[in-house]
Amino acid sequence: MERRLHDHLQRGFKGVQRGIEGVHDHLQEIHRDLSQQLRTISDLQKKACSTLLSVMSKVDMMVDNSEAQEAARLPRRPFITSNDVGLGEMMRGVVQIGTPVRLHLMCESRLEPHIVEDQPGMKLIVGDQNKKLLRWISVNFIRVVWFLVKAGVQVTLGAGSVIRELAHHSVGSKAGLVLADMTLDELKRLDNLPMIGKSQMAEKVWMFLKNQLPPENNISSCFKLFLVRYNPGTVAVEESYAWLCEKCIDKGKKNNMLKVVS
Question: pTM of this prediction?
Answer without folding.
Answer: 0.68
